[in-house]
Amino acid sequence: MGDTIKTLIVDDEPLAIERLQILCARLPQITLVGTAMDGAAALRLTENLAPDLILLDIQMPGTDGLAVAQLLAGRSPQPAIIFVTAFDAFAVSAFDIGVVDYLLKPVEAERFERAIARFSGERRLEGNGAKAKSPWTQEFWVPERSGISRISVKDIDLIEAERDYMRLHVGQRSFLLHETITALEQKLDPSEFVRLHRSTMVRRDQIAGFRRDNSGAWEVQLRNGRWLRVGRTYLTNARAMADRAR
Length: 246
Prior knowledge:
CATH class of the largest domain: Alpha Beta
Mean pLDDT: 88
Shape: elongated
Distance between the termini: 51 Å
Number of strands: 15
Strand content: 25-35%
Largest sheet: 5 strands, parallel
Low-confidence stretches: none
Order of helices and strands: EHEHEHEHEHEEEEEHEEEEEH
Strand order of the largest sheet: 2-1-3-4-5
Radius of gyration: 22 Å
Structural class: alpha/beta
């Protein structure tokens, strides 16, 4: 596998295509093989040009970018996709499909370069016969005022429910993700996270100890000193951890 990245640009706005062409021209590893202005053309060109990477807009007339990505899923060879869009509302749907990155317009050169570097790194791992991809979610993408932030699961210490959102605690910062705790529990590796309440999940290595309060209810202490109540439904989880620690 060579280092050249055969790239197809898909966007219904000529100025957006021009901007991406300029960004691509600055990176010697990218070989631009074509451009398309709608989803149907993108599918035809992908069939004929076999690009390694597609820089894909989402909102386009006819077949939109999400539909294009879904139609290309499972093809062999399957091109990687980086979404380039003016809207952050599709981030969750995009990463459920398994895209490389999600860039907001206007795309900054540094941000674009990071996305290409990320794709190149994943490509090298595949070429070196890296181990099979984990069935558990490895990252989340959460909207912020200035764009989309990538949150690595390994950096999450605590997850707490807040109405229709989940607050992901990452060190001293926190991020809101529009998801249910039940859905997250199904996506996260149970060897790394444990649910201790109907509204909380904790990274196992952040738990420093257990105790009973004055009423006899169980609590867990986190490494930062915070105490959290253990719900009755989840006592089995806490007891299993405590038994292993003995």
